[in-house]
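Sample entry (311 residues):
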Amino acid sequence: MTHVHILAFNADQYLERLAPQFPDVTFTLGYDKSNLGDGLYACDVLIGFGPILFDEPYEKNTNLKFIQALGTGVDGFADREGLSKDVLLSSMRGMHGPQMAEMTIMMMLAFNRGLPRILDNQKAKKWERWPGPILGGRTLGIWGVGLIAEAVAARAKAFDMSVIGISNTPRDIPNFDRVYARAEVLEAVAGVDYLLLLAPYTPENHHMVNAEVLAAMKPSSILINLARGKVADDQAIIEALKSGGIAGAALDVFDEEPLPQASPLWELPNVILTPHMGGMTTAYADLALPVIEHNLAAFLDGRFDDMKNRV
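Predicted structure, serialized as tokens:
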């Protein structure tokens, strides 16, 4: 009997729908780093998020044959040395566009309109007014041009923004005014008002946003990281924020998560922090389950070439 282990904070939601469809499958559950679930070390199929895992499960679990990542990225799976190359791996590519795009728009508007200051004034019962810039006419740069970036660009255009991309494979893409090659990154970031990070985490992308990149940005620009924490150097960001090298940062992901309480990022006035929730939505399970159902059925039937989002 095939054993499937589901590792997610809402694992019960997935189980409720999968169990009736696959009565011959044994399901076990885990929820987070503190409760990974015993089934992790014996399952044939793992459904979950890679970043919360470590090498040991892959080294100890000799039964593992298929991993269905619940995120767009497959870091935490594909980059683990203990994971056998024979293990099938698929992702949730294509389902994060709406929520990530809305988070991006929210961050840009929050900085433009001074939302943190507004909320502080509300708590203090302080009546204070000021003008804020509009998004129209400003430039959004997106580093990492995939399906999520395309969703962001379409919405940015609705605000009359200019949109440029930075990619390893420059090409013409709808709603992008220009796509720069990665080698041109310093030229690209010099002209943006907002730099959005959407690139996956790979060894090549480790700390790709460093002191040199931040120094090339305008002092009035805003950094937005909705990708992975390790694509940006947190210490370089802190220094740029303190020195006025950039005007602000909206950070959803960090080098270390949860963000340590000792991190200076908590206290900086020109930072908006969110706890890695850019891709989250109340509809997440409903969006993910069609891919999971299809891929699990294909795996059980041996139709490996029919699986969606194979990596």
